[in-house]
User: What shape does this take?
Amino acid sequence: MAAALVAVLLPRHPNAALSLAAGQILAAANFFFLTRLVKLFTGAVVAPTRTTGDWMRAKGFLVGTAKFVIVYGGAFAVLQWRGAEFLPLVAGLSMPLLALVLKSIMLAFSAGDAHSSRRATTTAAPARSSAKLAATILIAGLLALPVAVRAFAQDHGAGDAATATEVGAPLTEEPAAAEREQAEAAHTDATHAEGAHDGGEHEGGGEHLPNWVTIANDYFPDAPVVRWMHDNEYLVFAWLAGFLFLGLTWIGMRKPSPVPGQLQNAIEWIIESMEDVCGGMLGRHLHKYFPFIMAIFFYILMMNLIGIIPGLKSSTSTLDVTLALALVTFLYVQISGVINLGPLGYLDHLAGSPRDIVGFAMLPVMIPVHILGELVKPVSLSCRLFGNIFGEDTLIVVFVGVAALCLKASLVALAVPPMAGITALFMLLQTLTAIVQALIFALLTTVYLYMMLPHEAHGHEESGHAH
Amino acid sequence: MNFAATLGLALPIGIGLAAIGSGIGLGFMGRGAMEAMGRQPEALPKIQVAMIIGFGFIEALTIYAFVTMFFLQGKIQ
Assistant: This one.
């Protein structure tokens, strides 16, 4: 992939392509030497064989020196070379990092190894695999949804926000989001003009970090495919997340074995713990709703996590996508409520289940309150997800922007080490936020579904939380 | 004092107020959950799930203020 990128860039932007290649080679060399060093030292600690201390130290010294000379010398040489462009170099450097981040995410997921591998052999596999199948189908359906919402938002524009009662609240947000997106697009266009001559250094004051799509747009502004991808970049990354998840699960669950491998173990661990949590609330209804909940969960999780990888973007940091997800959840909950309670039971639920004369007297008050309570759910769900992810992204953009500012003022010593540390810290925080927000979205879906179930002690006071 | 200046003063203060409220709420919630966990360690998963859901609800209030800020931010010129 990297070589193809270089080859594509080479004829028109030789400098950028060379920088990209140089960055990749540097990063590869860096990783190679780092691996050697780590293996050397851990190997000595883990398995102290006949290797004498002197020899090991000498070898470590040798490798370390070689690394210093080649990697940092190379870096300095590249930095001194006038033709080098900053952005492609960083892009090339971050490419092996991408693989590393993916790997570490997978490692983080399989942290439950020790106890889940023992459980995994005993639990029933068929039910889970069918749930997986349903979940993947649902995800494929969900992938198409942001398209529909976008088209909807563009059709209606800012006009009839007040007309429809049911989608009234979402609609007021939609044009705002669409407008903001257009403003962002205009912004990147504006920076494109000036970014062309100073090496694409527009990470500074922008609203978001550059990703592959904006970079591609900078280099090929005329290609229609790139143009479309730039206009719908959230869609592109949402699809990417969906297909990434589909690929990961397909690889992981291709041949499910009783003794699970790493990936299968990770997936099974997530699904089983979610099964425990949701099963506590939904009880015997779990098997009906679990595929939907997990589809939502994994889709949001992938979209959130994809934003951590440099050059990619969380599509959940736009209201379009989160609103689509929340509307799907809303409709699903309402429809399942009608199915579960029956039309009359559903109306009864909306009326607050009046059983005595006071209940019927309160009817004109209770019905609007309950309808409002239902309508507020998608708004609350989508705003929460959007706000959290967007906030984290903005934090990282601000810190990277400070680093870029220091770089511009050639305060490299001030810019790189502390800022890299701070950014890494916030990326840790972002991972946490991504997982917790996906979890909260899925759990709230579960709670809403639970409130629509025929249930004896069916707490109506819970709908008060949704405000 | 014009509109933009008012907005520029009010938005950060609004977020701060929302954060104060959410912080107090989260503190109560966390304290309750911790006490419950200490009293009944065997009910830990259930308490944790309820706690996370509650955190979500409380935290959403600050997020609303945050989102409002982002919507109105463009008007400060």
User: Anything to note?
Assistant: Residues 2 and 383 of chain A are 37 Å apart (CA to CA). Chain A is about 80% helix and 0% strand. Residues 363-408 of chain A form the longest helix (46 residues).
